[in-house]
Design a protein that fits this description.
The protein is of the alpha/beta class and 320 residues long. It has a single domain, classed as Spore Coat Polysaccharide Biosynthesis Protein SpsA, Chain A. Helix content is 37%, strand content 21%. The protein has ten helices and ten strands. The radius of gyration is 24 Å and the shape is globular.
């Protein structure tokens, strides 16, 4: 118990696991890979995994940390996002409540997973009776929007995303809607940075397949390193969420990581982090005390109000 358990989902973009697993491997106690038994996506489409991937995984797993979890993760009666949420729940149950349940998508690459684990370990006491102390932990994406001929377009503002919990009562994908504790760790997220063919495949099969705005793909195809500063509103659902893009003249992950550390607008300030965490603490402090607050007002506020009305009435009677 109280182990660092990391879960990945294997699907049509399985090759990206070759980039997302290595950054977390050394700091994880165990890694679980969920794969649909019938090789179906959340939308019911079939995908194929080349045998060379399993061979790579076997060679890479020198410490024997990786375990496959195969099950039927596609239910025709459910929507894609409901299948998404269901699979993550089943995967976390397999990983074991009482451990840190970390889920990372195949296109997410931690810059400093060791630092993330170090932050997480400060909250190990939340693993004692986790069902009574539900909490989730968020980091910040640096979202890679598109690779151009010479470089990389990315969203110019880090976006928060949940990665870990002590209790997997997921409501939508890996979000539990419980109190969130934010860390300043950055995660590179390729998201929609793919070839056109790969992107179209993702748009058909991921959990947001019915939410994508109709103008998204045309803008994605049009934008490049010469015109990105003339355009805005790039998000695939609500465009204004990704207001502007920025550009780096490189495609190498190591160069991108180095540039991230040099750009002040991509850093998460201590003041911002403190405000976010205080706001979450305060919100859930009162949320969990709703019943007690109601009882307090009933037994104190209304009793006092009744007492003052009675006193006023009695004093008025004396004057009469």
């Amino acid at each position: 118990m109280k182990k660092i358990h990391v879960g990945f989902l294997l699907s049509y973009d399985y090759e990206k696991l070759k980039l997302s697993i290595p950054p977390v491997y050394n700091s994880a106690d165990k890694i679980f890979i969920a794969e649909d038994s019938n090789k179906k996506t959340w939308s019911g489409n079939e995908f194929v995994v080349d045998d060379s991937f399993y061979e790579w995984l076997k060679e890479f797993d020198v410490d024997n940390k990786i375990e496959f979890y195969r099950d039927n993760f596609y239910v025709p009666e459910l929507t894609a996002i409901e299948n998404d949420t269901r699979e993550r729940h089943l995967l976390s149950l397999k990983m074991g409540i009482g451990n840190w349940l970390i889920q990372i998508d195949s296109d997410e690459y931690f810059i400093d997973f060791k630092g993330f684990v170090s932050n997480l370990r400060k909250y190990d006491h939340y693993l004692d009776e986790p069902e009574k102390k539900k909490v989730q932990f968020a980091c910040f994406w640096l979202i890679i929007y598109k690779y151009t001929k010479e470089g990389t377009l990315f969203v110019d503002k880090p976006m928060k995303s949940v990665f870990a919990t002590n209790y997997p009562n997921y409501k939508c994908a890996r979000r539990t809607n419980e109190r969130t504790i934010y860390f300043d760790n950055l995660v590179l997220h390729e998201s929609i940075a793919r070839t056109e063919e790969q992107l179209v495949c993702k748009l058909k099969n991921w959990g947001h397949n019915h939410e994508v705005n109709e103008n998204f793909l045309n803008k994605w195809l049009m934008v490049n390193e010469t015109n990105y500063h003339q355009l805005e509103d790039f998000y695939y659902i609500n465009p204004k969420r990704w207001k502007k893009l920025n550009y780096l003249p490189t495609k190498r992950f190591e160069d991108i990581k180095m540039n991230v550390n040099l750009k002040s607008n991509l850093q998460i300030s201590k003041q911002y982090l403190m405000c976010k965490n205080f706001g979450q603490w305060f919100k859930f402090l009162w949320k969990n005390k709703d019943i007690r607050l109601e009882l307090y007002f009933r037994t104190h506020f209304f009793d006092k109000l009744n007492y003052r009305i009675t006193q006023f009435y009695m004093s008025d009677q004396k004057e009469i």
